[in-house]
Write a structure and sequence with these properties.
Elements (H helix, E strand, L loop, with lengths): L8 H19 L2 H17 L2 H5 L4 H18 L17 H14 L5 H12 L3 H8 L3 H19 L5 H16 L3 H6 L1 E10 L11 E2 L1 H11 L6 E8 L2 E8 L2 E11 L2 E8 L6 H4 L8
Parallel strand pairs: 1-6
Antiparallel strand pairs: 1-2, 3-4, 4-5, 5-6
Helix pairs in contact: 1-2, 1-4, 2-4, 5-6, 6-8
Length: 287
């Protein structure tokens, strides 16, 4: 995965907001507009890496796609549109190949089902797709995913005290806010890995990024300084993590797995669906 494909948060959210406005204007229904935009992103990820690379302006491609879907919906008004969503749940095959490589190399002691559950959790792949491959029901996969995530954190976080973790998390925030690439790189393990879960609903990286410098570059690109973007420390999964706001909306939740005094893994949640609970919280720490 090339970190040069990373996109700043303000661009991601402005793009999605623009597409929602287009679809809402055409259909007059916000719920339908959200479904149309989701479908447009499904189609974007349905393209091969080579095909996506040939798109000069992704936002224009997405806008054209949204417009076409809306016109199709209007032309078929009153007819069953359920078939419209079929065939777009899976990520591109390149993502599955990368997922297999990461799982086999880093989680070789896990069972096949646990490995698949980890892929489902880390890469935002469609639950039905993973369930069909493994032959396990979706609720069981979700439970395996949670257990595997906990196991991985324990495996990589070697006796790091809360105070040590907090110090590293605050240092990472400082490096990101000041856009200090050297400092951020020094805070990461040489073999650090970053996972970006956009759920196919924002134009985020679709696979993991490996190595301290590529991870640092990807984070700095995502969190590029903007008048509308802020980054604050906040408890994430019981340990200090980072929360990025775009205007007053939570745009990303970042959890950090710290090994000794460096970050071993970074988990970046960008999926708007999974951020809804964060956006419904009454108060926020701004420290």
């Amino acid at each position: 995965m090339d970190q040069s494909d990373a996109v700043p948060i303000d661009e991601l959210w402005e793009e999605r907001r623009f597409l929602l406005d287009v679809a809402h204007w055409m259909l007059g229904d916000l719920g339908a507009a959200e479904s149309v935009v989701d479908e447009a992103y499904h189609r974007w990820y349905g393209l091969s890496d080579a095909a996506r690379g040939q798109v000069g302006v992704p936002r224009s491609w997405l806008a054209k796609t949204v417009g076409g879907i809306c016109l199709d919906c209007l032309a078929r008004a009153g007819r069953d549109t359920a078939g419209h969503e079929e065939g777009h749940g899976a990520q591109p095959s390149a993502v599955e190949e990368e997922a297999d490589r990461v799982v086999l190399n880093a989680l070789e002691s896990l069972s096949t089902a646990e490995r698949a559950a980890f892929v489902f959790r880390a890469f935002g792949m469609a639950p039905a797709t993973v369930a069909g491959i493994v032959g396990r029901p979706e609720p069981e996969l979700a439970e395996l995913a949670a257990r595997t995530r906990q196991w991985l954190c324990l495996r990589r976080t070697r006796a790091t005290t809360p105070q040590q973790h907090d110090a590293v998390a605050h240092a990472v925030r400082r490096a990101c806010v000041t856009e200090d690439g050297e400092l951020l790189t020094s805070l990461l393990c040489p073999d650090a890995t970053a996972f970006f879960d956009g759920g196919g609903k924002v134009r985020a990286l679709t696979g993991p990024v490996h190595g301290c410098r590529p991870v640092a570059d990807s984070l700095l690109t995502l969190l590029a300084r903007s008048p509308h973007t802020t980054l604050t420390p906040h408890s994430v999964n019981g340990r200090t993590g980072l929360v990025a706001h775009y205007d007053r909306q939570v745009a990303a939740v970042i959890s950090l797995d710290v090994s000794d005094d460096r970050v071993a893994q970074v988990w970046v949640m960008l999926n708007p669906d999974k951020l809804r609970s964060w956006n419904h919280r009454p108060t926020w720490d701004q420290g």
